[in-house]
Amino acid sequence: MEGNYRNMIFNIILFDDFETLDVFGPIEIFGRNKNNKIDYYSLNGGQVISAQGLEINTSPIAQADSSGVLVIPGGMGTRKLISDTIFLKVLYDMAATATYCLSICTGSAVLAKAGVLDGKKATSNKKAFSWVMTSSDKVLWKKAARWVVDGKFYTASGVSAGIDMALGFIKDVYGIDVARQYANDIEYIWHEDKEQDPFAV
Question: Using 50, 70 and 90 to split pLDDT, how confident is the model at 1?
């Protein structure tokens, strides 16, 4: 996989009450390659407001490049999102054609509810793990993991784990030296071992 995707399109899927760091932690990493394209989408487009009050203008999800990297954060808004059958169908179709599919925190619950993670290993926020597991019994939920990789699917644990996963993704695509350089550039102590999860009980 290393070196195959030098320039990538990231389709960031947003919704009201998403967790801000779930999105902008990984974007800090993905955006370090200035050739990468980062776009923000919601189901119908327009303004979306994060749980911390950050306002983002989004384009309708139908305009997204279907072969890009799909990224979906978590946050309190996922509680409502898992009941939105229209959104779930759109998400399922996008995940099927995406080059990679990444989730942070309870974003994996939305992917699971859409059927995207059937038969796949995945993780999520440990404080919400019991709730996340109710979204699907067809997912191989892994509680003790900072992030999990299963084919093109990457799922991160809670909030800040999205940065660790993003660096892990960069390692898989660009190589370990690039990932470590990115971490050093932002003065971040990267948890390189995805199996080491200090928040798992």
Answer: very low
Find out whether 61 and 13 touch, Cβ atoms under 8 Å: yes
- pTM of the entire predicted model: 0.95
> What residue type is 163 in one-letter code?
I
198 three-state secondary structure? coil
Which amino acid is located at 105 in the chain?
Answer: C
CB atoms within 10 A of CB 89: 12
What is the rounded distance in angstroms from the CA atom of residue 130 to the CA atom of residue 178? 35
d(CA 94, CA 105): 19
**How many Å apart are CA 163 and CA 27, to the nearest integer?**
9
* Secondary structure (3-state) at 60: strand
Q: Which fold has domain 9-185?
A: Rossmann fold (3.40.50)
pLDDT digits (tens, 9 = 90+) for 2-44: 344 468 999 999 999 999 999 999 999 999 999 999 999 999 9
d(CA 74, CA 13): 10
Domains of the chain, by residue range, sit at: 9-185
Report how far residue 23's alpha carbon sits from residue 14's, in angstroms, rounded to the nearest whole number: 9
